[in-house]
From TrEMBL, chains A, B:
<comment type="similarity">
    <text>Belongs to the FPP/GGPP synthase family.</text>
</comment>
<dbReference type="GO" id="GO:0008299">
    <property type="term" value="P:isoprenoid biosynthetic process"/>
</dbReference>
<dbReference type="InterPro" id="IPR000092">
    <property type="entry name" value="Polyprenyl_synt"/>
</dbReference>
<keyword id="KW-0479">Metal-binding</keyword>
<keyword id="KW-0808">Transferase</keyword>
<protein>
    <submittedName>
        <fullName>Polyprenyl diphosphate synthase</fullName>
    </submittedName>
</protein>
<dbReference type="InterPro" id="IPR033749">
    <property type="entry name" value="Polyprenyl_synt_CS"/>
</dbReference>
<dbReference type="InterPro" id="IPR008949">
    <property type="entry name" value="Isoprenoid_synthase_dom_sf"/>
</dbReference>
<dbReference type="GO" id="GO:0046872">
    <property type="term" value="F:metal ion binding"/>
</dbReference>
<dbReference type="Pfam" id="PF00348">
    <property type="entry name" value="polyprenyl_synt"/>
</dbReference>
<dbReference type="GO" id="GO:0004659">
    <property type="term" value="F:prenyltransferase activity"/>
</dbReference>
<keyword id="KW-0460">Magnesium</keyword>
Length: 314, 314
């Protein structure tokens, strides 16, 4: 299984040769180290938490790419494409188990509390993926349902990343909960940007296929916002997507057919609404930070991370 | 996801109607309750442990059935056959997360220790499944490799089941480790019988397909023991399996072709060796019990459970 995990993290290529591939943005581990510092502990105290959240994140990527049929991640073929579905399942399971082991082997009460938060976040993440998949087969999904799904799928683990270092550093539950509030809204901003990149992202930057979310019929924020907006573009989009839902031909769509759908989403206001939503969530996240007394340097870095999340191109 | 989980546990049928389907033998939860009693605690103390080990067991069944392509379990179509691969992955993940949550929400130091043992056992179980899959594509697997794989795949979680209730009841590590030794060898006995049932089991009793392990080219104990035995039947079996490994036609084999392979395994002594191995492991398991001071009634039940494991037909 090490070979498969090493390939996923970009340490070796598909032929097993050493490689320095893209291993992801490491937003969650960065947050976990800052989290320890926010509670007045040394950043090293957050390391097991950083490892654990990154392992859970990668467990979810391995399984989600297989469930969603995604063929590209981080500019490379996904694990199930290279090593087969069984390896993607197994190695995902192993990373999940390892995440808990890394925390529990510390053996302290704080580590137990950290593991509990991580487990709850992981269960929500799985709930979110279940909602995401079920929405692909539904004609209508409300903006509220979409935000709830994205809060589970992305918000919960980012929230945990921002509390886990603090908990390991001995922070009380109130501090941890306030940090989680920042992380949760940061997660919603992150996911809103992800949804924009999933339709209009540059494949050279994102490392994913063009129109990747449209290929999977994802009911992401720009889509549900466009459908909820009303007006001619919204209605035409609704007709097209309803027909797509009944058809099995989406896999063979041309670039133009995806471009038509993307243009209608934009015309109906879905792109602009989602950009604004990212900024709204960014603001709420920054405001939550004022509820925790922390070194100014740490606060500045958490703000900078939130800024990065909304302007990123990959 | 509840619908899929309820189907897997036999509470509803494929159409969602209430059902009283076979939910499994519940060997692991039975052991977890006895485990608490072995440490002098009330059986109720073991309940979260019983729930957790049964959830981990069922997580592994959901994923393994998908990876192995198994179509029947407990006299019903497997989850991936009825609800699709994505649901089997997702609900398996959810049961795994829930197993940890059930233990950690207790919030005690003992619960942290119990979760750590469960996590380590789960990682070994995943290792064992990885070994099992890799052996399907290898021409030769030694008896030792097979026993190591089965110790990981089956022994580790049964060992955890026998220690988890005791740990929740406050037992020290030495007591827990000794109970795990009983459970580990019980697991090896259990798996040896499983391997016999996987070839010669009655589908009416097992709820699986005929020749299910041969269909999957499993290098189970009877097969590796027969290949290691030498002599004409062993050599003929080796030639057949080597040819099978290069061919993609195993899926279309007739009942006679499987029967030929089963007869050669028996003729080479693989069936008898595996029966004896089950009895050897049973004996070692019972002997380990003498290392723990426990109520005689509890000891008698652990012995009875070991006896059941080696004579069972399903």
């Amino acid at each position: 299984m090490d070979t498969v995990a090493a390939y996923h993290f970009g340490w070796i290529d598909a032929q097993g040769r050493p490689s320095d591939g893209d291993g992801g943005k490491a937003v969650r581990p960065a947050l976990a180290l800052l989290s320890a510092e926010a509670a007045g502990a040394a950043p090293e105290v957050g390391v097991p938490g950083a490892v654990a959240v990154e392992l859970v994140h990668n467990f979810s990527l391995l399984h989600d790419d297989l469930m969603d049929g995604d063929e590209q991640r981080r500019h490379r073929d996904t694990v199930w494409k290279v090593h087969g579905p069984a390896q993607a399942i197994l190695v995902g399971d192993a990373l999940f188990a390892l995440a808990n082991e890394v925390l529990l082997e510390i053996g302290t009460v704080e580590a137990g509390r950290a593991t509990r938060r991580l487990t709850t976040a992981t269960r929500k993440l799985i709930d979110g993926q279940a909602q995401d998949i079920s929405y692909e087969h539904r004609e209508r999904v409300t903006v509220e349902e979409c935000l709830e799904m994205e809060g589970n799928k992305t918000g919960a683990l980012l929230a945990c990343a921002v509390s886990i270092g603090a908990v390991l550093g001995g922070a009380d539950d109130r501090t941890a909960d306030t940090l989680e509030s920042y992380g949760y809204h940061l997660g919603l901003a992150f996911q809103a940007v992800d949804d924009l990149l999933g339709i209009w992202g540059d494949p050279v930057a994102t490392g994913k296929q063009t129109w990747s979310d449209l290929r999977q019929r994802k009911k992401s924020l720009p889509v549900v916002a466009a459908l909820a907006a009303g007006g001619p573009a919204s209605e035409r989009l609704g007709e097209l997507l309803a027909a797509d839902a009944k058809s099995n031909d989406v896999d063979s769509f041309s670039e133009e057919e995806f471009a038509t759908r993307a243009a209608l989403i934009e015309e109906a206001g879905g792109r602009e609404w989602t950009s604004q939503e990212a900024r709204r969530q960014h603001t709420v996240a920054i405001e939550a930070l004022s509820g925790v007394d922390m070194p100014e340097r740490v606060r500045a870095q958490l703000v900078a991370l939130a800024d990065f999340v909304v302007v990123r191109k990959r």
